[in-house]
Amino acid sequence: MLLGPARAQAEEVPPKLGLLLLLKVLSYDANLDAHVAAGAEFVVLVPFVPAQAALAKELLAVAAGLEVDQVSGRKLRFESVPQASLEATAASAKASAVLVLQGSPTELVEAVQALGAKKKLYTLALEEAPVKSGIALGVTLNNAKPLLLVNVPSAHAVGASFNTAVMRVARLFQ
């Protein structure tokens, strides 16, 4: 008898699906107005290390093709940025959120977490591991269906407040 691996490899969330879910969930934050003024742009930064430059470019192409171009009436814009320029770009671009690419190194994830806490920016991921380690919101697949992930302390640290309907459908990390 052949035995399979003890743990199945996690399925990767299609970027388009993950982005759409995360953007929809952000619109349910009761404190969204405190993060992004009405009429202002909702800017999502996508930091990358040199080995991820092509992945960042691909993600921006997916984002450009989304049917959604707003978050609660705020024009949506994605911008990729090398990790070394992340903090300066966050200030100059008036960032609202930072999205960690799949497979990002620990040092980049930690830099995003620190920046999110310092500047009260939403931190986002398209996989589970960064959310477990402190990114506020993410998405994964559970039985081929998208599952929202919320790191409760991190979400609260950036000032996010999601209603119980959102929290009930999410996997929560304490």
The appropriate CATH architecture is 3-Layer(aba) Sandwich
Number of domains: 1
In N-to-C order, the SSE pattern is: HHEHEEHEHEHEEHHE
What's the CATH first level?
A: Alpha Beta
What can be said about the biggest beta sheet? 8 strands, mixed
Distance from first to last alpha carbon: 40 Å
Largest sheet, spatial ordering of strands: 2-3-1-4-5-6-7-8
What sort of overall outline do the alpha carbons produce when their principal axes are compared?
A: globular
CATH topology name, in short, is Rossmann fold
- Any idea what the CATH superfamily is called? Response regulator
State Rg.
16 Å
Number of helices: 8
Class by alpha and beta content: alpha/beta
Q: Indicate the percent of residues in helices.
A: 25-40%
Strand percentage = 15-25%
What do you see in this structure?
The protein is an alpha/beta fold and 174 residues long. It has one domain (15-173): Rossmann fold. Helices cover 37% and strands 25% of the residues. The chain contains eight helices and eight strands. It starts with 14 loop residues before the first helix and ends with a strand.
Give the helices and strands, then pairings:
Layout: H1 15-26, H2 32-35, E1 42-48, H3 53-64, E2 70-71, E3 74-82, H4 86-92, E4 97-100, H5 106-119, E5 122-125, H6 128-132, E6 137-142, E7 145-151, H7 152-157, H8 164-168, E8 170-173
List keywords for this structure.
single chain, 174 residues, alpha/beta, Rossmann fold, 8-stranded mixed beta sheet, 8 helices, 37% helix, 25% strand, disordered N terminus
